[in-house]
């Protein structure tokens, strides 16, 4: 059967790859750290000020983030004046992040770095890191989602989920009658 012959309402059985891999914890945590940077990392100042930012107030995420920043950069991020902002001013850290495939850009232009595609473990870690930052689980309605202002990043993550055998799709968040700043900042939803 050709795809062009499908009609609305036709059911399609999708072949899902057999995932038989052993989780490599070091690669998973590397991917997880990159996912955290993709979600709440500030990369727009890397070229001008040689600075990487991170903005989050969750104590558990911050503890893991600082642990991983020491592992990958040899340094811990320092607190800024704002309640949730942290930064690391380091030429070496900026160069490292660029080697991973991140670019100095605003949050709406981030893409999945090539290093996140290194293995199934880094893919899984990256998705989990991004999900810890921007994800939501709604068990009563049986779905999970990632809300983002960056549609190309969600398209990349959608492809990564497909590699793991997860069916997902991207939709535009409905605004309704009451518009808030948050609605404008995160108009795209990746449903799983």
Number of helices: 7
For the termini, the CA-CA separation is: 27 Å
Mean pLDDT: 86
Unreliable segments of 5+ consecutive residues: 179-184
Radius of gyration: 18 Å
Name the shape in a single word: globular
**Structural class determined from secondary elements:** alpha+beta
H/E element sequence? HEHEHEEHHEEHEHE
The percent range for strand residues is 15-25%
Q: Order of strands side by side in the largest beta sheet?
A: 1-2-4-3
* Percent in helix: 40-55%
Report on the architecture of this protein.
The chain is α+β, with helices and mostly antiparallel strands and 192 residues long. 41% of the residues lie in helices and 17% in strands. The strands form two sheets. It has a four-stranded antiparallel sheet. Strands 5-6-8-7 form a four-stranded antiparallel sheet. A hairpin with a 4-residue loop joins β5 (135-138) and β6. α1 crosses α3 (59-73) and α5 packs across α6 (151-163).
């Amino acid at each position: 059967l050709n795809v062009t012959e499908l009609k609305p309402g036709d059911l399609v059985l999708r072949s899902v790859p057999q995932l038989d891999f052993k989780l490599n914890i070091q690669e998973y945590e590397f991917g997880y750290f990159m996912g955290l940077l993709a979600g709440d990392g500030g990369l727009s100042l890397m070229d001008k000020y040689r600075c990487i930012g991170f903005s989050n107030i969750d104590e558990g995420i911050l503890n893991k983030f600082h642990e991983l920043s020491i592992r990958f950069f040899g340094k811990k991020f320092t607190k800024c004046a704002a309640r949730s902002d942290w930064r690391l001013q380091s030429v070496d850290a900026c160069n490292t992040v660029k080697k991973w495939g991140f670019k100095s850009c605003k949050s709406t232009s981030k893409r999945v770095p090539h290093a996140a595609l290194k293995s199934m473990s880094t893919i899984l870690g990256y998705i989990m890191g991004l999900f810890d930052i921007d994800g939501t689980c709604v068990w009563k309605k049986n779905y999970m989602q990632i809300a983002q202002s960056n549609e190309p990043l969600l398209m990349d993550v959608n492809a990564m989920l497909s590699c793991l055998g997860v069916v997902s799709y991207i939709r535009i968040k409905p605004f309704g009658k009451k518009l808030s700043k948050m609605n404008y900042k995160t108009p795209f939803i990746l449903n799983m």
